[in-house]
Design brief:
Layout: H1 3-23, H2 46-52, H3 57-60, H4 75-82, H5 90-100, H6 121-126, H7 132-135, H8 152-161, E1 164-167, E2 173-176, E3 184-185, H9 190-193
Antiparallel strand pairs: 1-2, 1-3
């Protein structure tokens, strides 16, 4: 094979790979989702629920306390209130129909990390990190958007800033910025988040 032929083959392989990555359905560059605010199948206002009515994030996203993912609340969670409140609203009727037909509501995912990165909500929630630290002022958002980059730099900066974790009198973790030998450290070891 001539040098010229090898260069052409190499160029074709490179271009084909680049196009495949660019066209890939799951390929996104890090931080490219900041500001992403898709329309949802139900017009749900976090401002009304978490802001005006002060419903705690963990009431709806209860999995965040015990799981890696915060999860999408079950439609039945919505109906804990909406069997009585605004039950005839067109948006609530969508939930009622979904429950009656046993059809899941297909929410559009907003926050997504690359496949090579792992994040555990339960570790952060149990350490006292507020949802707003990563998700921004959700309680002010009519329609949720990705507030921050969710980049590696964002996470590492937070781990370096809020380095120390202590336990209070009830054994619950408390984040501080001071580090002493008796305190657990927020890790900056690559293998903690990358697998």
């Amino acid at each position: 094979m001539s040098l010229r032929t090898a260069k052409i083959i190499s160029l074709l392989v490179t271009v084909t790979g680049a196009v495949a990555l660019w066209q890939g359905a799951t390929f996104t560059s890090l931080g490219s989702q900041q500001g992403y605010q898709p329309a949802q199948p139900i017009d749900f206002s976090h401002k009304v629920h978490a802001g005006d009515n002060q419903i705690a994030c963990l009431y709806c996203h209860s999995a965040a306390e015990r799981s890696k993912v915060a999860g999408i609340p079950a439609a039945s969670t919505c109906m804990n209130c909406h069997t009585q409140i605004l039950k005839d609203s067109p948006e609530i009727q969508k939930i009622t129909r979904a429950l009656a037909s046993n059809t899941p509501i297909e929410w559009v995912r907003i926050h997504r990390l690359p496949d090579h990165a792992a994040f555990d909500h339960s570790r952060h929630v149990s350490a006292g990190i507020k949802c707003q630290q990563c998700h921004g002022p959700v309680e002010t958002m009519e329609r949720v958007q990705q507030f921050d980059t969710l980049s590696m730099g964002m996470c590492v900066t937070c781990h370096r800033t809020h380095r120390a974790v202590t336990l209070d009198e009830n054994g619950k973790p408390v984040i501080t910025s001071e580090a002493t030998p008796k305190r657990l450290m927020a890790s900056t070891d690559c293998s903690v988040c990358h697998h």
